[in-house]
Structures are given as C-alpha cells and as structure tokens.
Design goal:
- The complex is a heterodimer.
- Chain A is of the alpha+beta class.
- Chain A has 2 domains: about 1-50 and about 260-410, no CATH class; about 65-250, no CATH class.
- Chain A has helices at about 1-15, 15-55, 65-70, 80-90, 120-125, 150-160, 195, 205-210, 230-245, 255-260, 260-300, 300-310, 315-350, 355-360, 375-400, 405-410, and strands spanning about 60-65, 90-105, 110-120, 135, 145-150, 165-170, 175-190, 200-205, 220-225, 250-255, 350, 370.
- A 6-stranded mixed β-barrel of chain A has the order 2-3-8-5-7-6, surrounded by 4 helices. A two-stranded antiparallel ribbon of chain A has the order 11-12.
- By secondary structure, chain B is of the alpha+beta class.
- Chain B contains 15 helices and 12 strands.
- In chain B, the strands form 2 sheets. Chain B has a 6-stranded mixed barrel with strand order 2-3-8-5-7-6.
- In chain B, helix 2 (about 15-55) crosses helix 12, helix 2 (about 15-55) packs antiparallel against helix 14 and helix 12 runs antiparallel to helix 14 (about 370-395).
- The two termini of chain B are about 30 Å apart.
- The chains are: A alpha+beta, B alpha+beta.
C-alpha cells in the first residue's frame, strides 16, 4: 500500500505543470463555491435581519387569526402579562407593544386610507429602526400624546409637512367611531414603499384612548439576541403563554410566519443558485475528466510496461485513483483556504452594492452586503467538487484495466 | 496549406480532439442555457409588470404622478386621441382609465385600494384584467354598479360574488364621495399584492361617483412584443405639450424592475467569465498535453526548417478550429435544450410564493437572446485563443535536438 502511495505521489509530480493546472482548476471551483455560498448566506442574513429590524421583529405574540384578518377586535388583552413572561426568558433582547387600526387620514386637501400604528416610543427604540429612519422633524418621546410620525410617501400624497395637522377617522375596538386631530412630529422613510405609503405611528397610550382599546394591544413584538435564538425563544414563550392562556387565544409567530414572502424568496434564490452551481460543477467536472483522460493517453506506454511486468489491473486502477484523489484533495484544501480568506476579507469590509440600492432597499438592505463564512458554506461546494471529480476519475481508472500491453507499448 | 495542415493534425488524434471539444461544448452550452433561463425570468418579469396596468407607455396629466388625485385629470381626451392615432403604430393598443386611491369597506373590513375605472373592451387588449376573471363575469360597458375585485381581497373581506362593497374616495370638489357597488366578479393575478390592490369599475361609474365630466387619469399604451418604447414616447412628446402631459415609458414607471434587469445583465456577464475560467483550465491543460505529446513532431518540423512563428500559428489554428467546431455543437445543443423546454417551461411552482415576492411567475420559459449568444461565443473564441498562446509558445520553443530525443 505504502509503495502505491509513494508511486502515486511521485507520478503526480513527474509532470508538475500538468498537475498544477489540474489542481488550480479544482481549487478555482472550490474557491468560487465557498465564496458564492458564503455570499448568498450572508445576504440572506442581512435581508432577514434588516427586514426584521424595520418593523416585524423576530417574533410576535398576537391573537389567533389576527395575522390574516387584521381585525381590530382580535386583541392581546393583557400585554403586561406577556411582558412578564418575556422578562424571564434569557435570549430576549427587547420587546415592545403595538396596536394597529386601518383609518382614513385627511389633510386640508386630501384623504387617504392608512394603517395607524400605536407604538411605545421608549420600548420601540430598542426593537425597530424606526427612530433612525426619521428624515425630517423628530422621533416621539415618552409623554407625547396627539403627535404622530408619518411615512414620507403618505406625507407627499397628503401634501403635509411637519407641524401640520391631520384628521384621523377610524373604527374603535367596540365598533364606535374613533376620530382625532393630530400634529405631525416627524417624517420617516424606510425605503419599503408599502410602509412609507400607508402608515402612521402614534403613541400607544393615545392610540388606546382614541380607539377604545382598554389597555389591549394587537402585537407583542420581540427581538432576540440573534436570529438563531428565535426557535428557543419561541418554544419558551409558547410554553409560558400556555400556562396563563389555556384556551389558545394567543399565538406566537416567528419571522417566517410573519413574512412568508421573505422566506420563500430566499428559497427561490437558493434554487436558482443551485442551478448555477450545478452548471458550474458540470463544467469543472468535464474540465477535470479531460485532464485525467489525457493523462491516460499520454501515459499509455508506461501503463503498457507496468502491465507487461505483471502489475494487476486492480493495482493500476488503485494507483490512478490515489493519484487523482490526492490531486483533488490538494486542490480542494487550497480552494477552501483561499476561498475562506477572500470571504473573511469581505466579511470584514463588506461588498459595495450601491448600484442596486433601489432594489435592495425593498428588502431592507442598504449599501453593503457582508458574506458570512460558516462551516456549511465552506464545505458544501468543495464537497460536491470532490464527489464529482472522484466520479470523473473513475472512468479513466477503470478504462485502463482493458489495456493491451503489447498494443500499449507500441503506442507513440 | 496551413489550414490543411492544421485540419489534418486535428483529426490525426481524434480522441484527443474530441476530449477538448467536449469541454468547449459543455462550456458554451451552459453559458447559453443559463442566460436563456435568466432571460426567460427577465422577460416574464417585464411582461408581468407591463400587463399589471403599466403598459409600455403611460400618459398622465403632469402633476398626477406626484399627486394621484382626481383633480389632476386630463380634460380633453379628444386631443389625446388624435395625437395617439397619429403617432402609434397600427398594431398598438391603448386604453384610457380613471385611477384614484380609494377605501373599500364592507360590514367587517376596510382597506386601502386603487380604484380603476376602465373602458371594458379596449382595456381587455391592454392589461391582464381581460382574461384574469376566475369567478363571475367581466364588466360590460355602461355597467353602473358592478365591481371586480381580486380573489385575495375577496377572501380578506370574507365576502363573495354578489355581495356589496362600499368605496370611498375624494371627488373633484374635494369632498368624500362614496358609492356602493355589487361584486360581479373576481380576478386572479400572478401577484397577491395585485389582487389586494386593484378594484375595477366602468369608467362611467367612476366618473359619476367622482363627479368628473369627461376627464381621464391615464392612458396606457401596449406596443407589440419587444418593440422599443422610447421612439414612440419621443413621438408622443413632440405631439403633446410637456406643460400639460407627462409621458413615461415602463422603464421610468417601474424603476425597481429596471434595476433588477441591470443586475441580471451583470450577472450573466459574470457567469460567462466564471464558466470560461473553469473551462479555460481544461483547454490549457489538454492543449498543453497535446503539445508535449507531439514534441517529436514539432522538433522534426523545426529541424526541417520551420520557423517558431509558424509553429505558433499552427497550434493556434488548430485550437481555433477545435473552438469553432465545439462552439457550433455547443450552440446547437443549447438551442435544442431551450427549444425542448420552451414549450413546457421550467416549473418553479414549489417556490411560487417566493417567486411572487420577486415578481417572477411560477413557470419560466427560457428565451434565447441573440446578444447573449454572440457575447458568449466571442468570449469563448477570444479567451480560448488567448489561453492557447501558452502551449503554442511552449511548442515553438522546443529545440530540435532535445525534442527528437524525447520519447
């Protein structure tokens, strides 16, 4: 065995130019796959994190059915009780309460329909990026009452600016009419058209008065310490709620349930990514198969001699496989190392994508994408390369068995 | 003579030639196939965007885009019609609409929607609504009470066809106008957001509700497939004064779609390069080996007095011929694959909701673009010759004595 390995190793370096080219091809493919996969995973994480931070949160507690119907009657009656449960859970970073109602919003000249969202200014700050999205005027403070924040597109449609008054007309929790006049304190722009065109944020206390909420809210929004902790928090929170709410009137929803489109667009991207990787690996496999085949052609005489002096076909096959596996391994390791280094560099510095910022702001990404190197992203691609090169090495390695020594030795 | 020499050299060892050629075939095939797949996605997104009321070109009153209310209507449709008749090619279709934001409500729900007043017959030729009705029936001209809503809105409102729906919007006097309609049909769209956003009534009903005499909010124009909207838009701009009207092509109306397409273009080009590098290693390696294998031969040629430059030319010509044949086969193979899939399409339905988020439909029909085919072939031929330079130069540098001694 050890002699075979030695022979294989020497064979590899007998023609260093050829070996280096083959190894480079394998390394290049591995490098590319490591980087691309890390880039993809990184952009998903950026996408999820920014979408989550703009509004939705990692998790929400809602009344059962509220997610689909958005009816003002489906409330979380005692938010503080949920808050107490959340205080007990370790991985929770922050949480806040919100209430929503669809209402008619009028300025002097215009009327539009909009979502009116009641927020707790102090708690909201830790959960969402709303405060940093204010482009004009200022954010709400603790004791604000009839002051609101408004999306920039809605402000444009209503033809209003900060300090202007707008009338809000909607339906309260009990079916009564909810009407009020408020002053615009700030204008925000999130880049997500839906939010900017049809939402207004007002202090939660004031919202509860106007819409007759009696202390109830619609959503308890939770941000965990990291995306990965979502599952643990969800389990703990569900268990905690079960104790106080035996009738299943409340549900815990995670970001996947709150934003199904986001998850599926990630899946779609993965699928088109897989088509891409598949084609790439196919091209690489043929490039490598070629090299292996050429090696056999070139060394026909040599194999003929080996066979003539009594080498068994099995041993020849083994020899060739050891050669190709060691080349593949060198290439893959080099590719993983180089790919990881490049990825780490960009993980540090980010990749500028400002050219596509219009588009990406719809997904809540701005300016830079940071690839994310993980064991998974570093090993999946090279693993596939290994399998495919091994398979393409099999053909020449077995073909050689049927070599006729006499013919082979006369081959020029 | 060179050509003949190179051609015969290629086929002297047909096995080796075939191996190199396979690498090229696979490379070219994957370039064209992937670009066709992406173009299919792109075409679908554009078609989808255009048929969702945008059209290739839209005309509005100049303030409408920034302030889409009923006051910003175009009040002399006759003048517009004459201009359209003059400028548009005869195969184009157009429809005029009233389009304002409104609030739809029933006993249980209310929601912000876009109210679209349409001329049912011309509209069917311009936007998706003509053949998107999945339940009930389409609007008839002059229907004063009927309304068509999206299936998703119907579900959200927990109502059904035949029930009432109240719409509220601001009329020309800036008062709140409200009017009750009866849902006569529902439509299905590729995007759920579209189903939730639009509600269609006849233009006469919309005018009556909003107290508008004969004005319209927008004209949407559909040009035949693949026609460039820009010259038509320029033609319209010379006919219609910019003080009164704003004429926009879909590229201006859907900037996000446009950004997507730019990314696609960039990605396709990067893909070409990546495939080429992967393929390039194979080409260099095999050509190099072929050259070494023929060391004796080159040595002999040199000994007979062939100049190094001739040897370079010979090796390059051989590569060139192999590249050309490989490319032809690769192109044919790609066309065959695209053609085979063009009928049934590539089904992404398992990921439909995600496709929807990105504005892509469920089934992708690959589409070959001549530009992509040309660029991918140029990339292969130029870079292919470049990487063959190295083995060619190697061959030219063999000294006759050494080479002839080589076994």
């Amino acid at each position: 065995m050890s002699m075979d390995v030695k022979m294989a190793w020497r064979n590899i370096w007998r023609n260093p130019r050829r070996t280096i080219l083959t190894i480079s091809a394998i390394a290049f493919a591995s490098l590319l796959l490591v980087f691309m996969l890390s880039f993809q995973f990184g952009s998903y994480e950026t996408m999820i994190n920014s979408s989550v931070k703009i509004h939705t949160g990692h998790l929400q507690v809602q009344s059962t059915g509220y997610q689909d119907k958005k009816s003002i009657r489906l409330v979380v009656p005692d938010p503080d009780a949920i808050g107490k449960i959340l205080d007990q859970i370790q991985n929770v970073e922050a949480y806040t309460f919100r209430a929503d109602a669809f209402s008619l919003v009028s300025s002097k000249k215009r009327t539009y329909g909009s979502m009116v969202i009641g927020i707790d200014p102090v708690k909201e700050e830790k959960v969402s990026t709303l405060k940093s999205l204010i482009r004009k005027g200022s954010y709400l403070v603790k004791d604000d009452a009839d002051q609101v924040l408004i999306g920039n597109l809605l402000a444009k449609n209503l033809k209003v600016d900060i300090q202007d008054e707008i009338t809000i007309l909607g339906q309260g929790r009990d079916g009564s009419i909810a009407a009020t006049v408020v002053k615009i304190k700030g204008i925000y722009s999130s880049g997500i058209d839906d939010l900017d065109r049809s939402s207004i944020h007002m202090p939660l206390k004031y919202f509860q008065d106007v819409y007759g909420m009696y202390g109830a809210v619609h959503e308890v929004v939770v941000i965990g310490k990291s995306l990965k902790k979502t599952k643990i928090i969800k389990a703990a929170l569900s268990a905690g709620i079960k104790k106080t709410d035996p009738k299943d009137r409340l549900v815990v929803l995670d970001w996947k349930e709150l934003m199904p489109g986001l998850l599926q667009s990630i899946e779609l991207d993965l699928v088109s990514g897989i088509i891409f990787y598949f084609l790439l690996i196919l091209v690489v496999a043929f490039s490598i198969l070629n090299t292996f085949l050429m090696v056999i052609f070139e060394r026909t005489r040599e194999f003929g001699v080996l066979k003539a002096i009594g080498t068994t076909p099995g041993r020849l096959t083994k020899l060739l496989l050891i050669e190709s596996i060691s080349m593949t391994m060198i290439g893959i390791v080099a590719g993983i190392i180089a790919g990881s280094l490049i990825t780490l560099f960009f993980q540090e510095h980010g990749i500028d994508i400002s050219g596509a910022s219009d588009l990406l702001s719809q997904f809540g990404i701005s300016g830079r994408i940071y690839p994310r190197l993980s064991i998974l992203s570093a090993l999946i691609g090279p693993g596939a390369v290994f399998v495919i090169t091994f398979l393409s090495a099999l053909y020449p390695a077995f073909k050689i068995r049927s070599l006729n020594p006499v013919e082979a030795m006369t081959y020029v | 003579m060179y050509f003949q020499l190179a051609w015969r050299n290629i086929w002297r060892n047909s096995r080796r030639t075939a191996v190199i050629m396979i690498a090229i075939v696979i490379g070219v095939w994957s370039m064209i196939f992937l670009s066709a797949f992406m173009r299919g996605m792109e075409y679908d997104m554009i078609k989808n965007g255009i048929s969702t009321l945008t059209g290739n070109i839209q005309i509005h009153q100049k303030d409408y885009i920034n302030d889409p209310v009923i006051e910003n209507s175009m009040h002399s449709p006759i003048k517009l019609e004459t201009a359209l008749k003059k400028v548009l090619p005869p195969v184009a279709h157009w429809a005029s609409r009233i389009r304002v934001n409104a609030i739809a409500s029933n006993a249980r729900h209310s929601s912000s929607i876009t109210l679209v007043g349409i001329n049912p017959i011309p509209e069917a030729k311009v936007s998706f609504i003509g053949n998107a009705i999945n339940n009930g029936c389409y609007l008839k001209p002059g229907d004063m009470r009927g309304i068509i809503v999206g299936q998703a809105l119907l579900n959200k409102f927990e109502t059904k066809v035949g029930h009432k729906l109240v719409l509220m919007s601001q009329d020309t006097d800036q008062e709140i106008a409200s009017r009750s309609f009866r849902i006569i049909g529902t439509f299905k769209a590729q995007l759920q957001a579209t189903e939730k956003q639009f509600a269609f009534v006849t233009i006469t009903a919309a005018r009556q509700m909003l107290k508008l005499k004969k004005g319209i909010s927008e004209i949407s124009i559909i040009l035949p497939d693949n026609a460039d909207a820009n010259p038509v838009a320029t033609g319209l701009k010379t006919e219609l004064s910019a003080d009164l009207y704003q004429i926009q092509t879909w590229q201006e109306l859907l900037p996000i779609l446009n950004a997507y397409i730019e990314i696609f273009d960039g990605f396709i080009f990067i893909w070409f390069i990546v495939v080429f590098i992967a393929m390039g290693f194979g080409i260099v390696n095999t050509t190099l080996m072929a050259v070494f294998e023929r060391m004796r031969e080159f040595g002999l040629l040199k000994a007979l007095g062939m100049k190094p430059w001739w040897i370079i030319k010979d090796v390059l010509l051989e590569s060139f011929l192999i590249l050309i044949i490989g490319m032809i086969i690769g192109n044919l193979l790609a066309f065959l694959c695209v053609f085979a899939l063009a009928q049934s399409g590539i089904d992404l339905s398992a990921f439909a909701a995600g496709a929807e988020f990105a504005g892509i439909s469920r089934i992708i029909y690959p589409a070959v673009w001549i530009e992509d085919v040309i660029i991918s072939n140029i990339v292969v031929i130029i870079l292919g010759l470049l990487v063959s330079l190295y083995p060619a130069a190697k061959a030219a540098r063999f000294t006759p004595v050494e080479a002839l001694m080589h076994t």
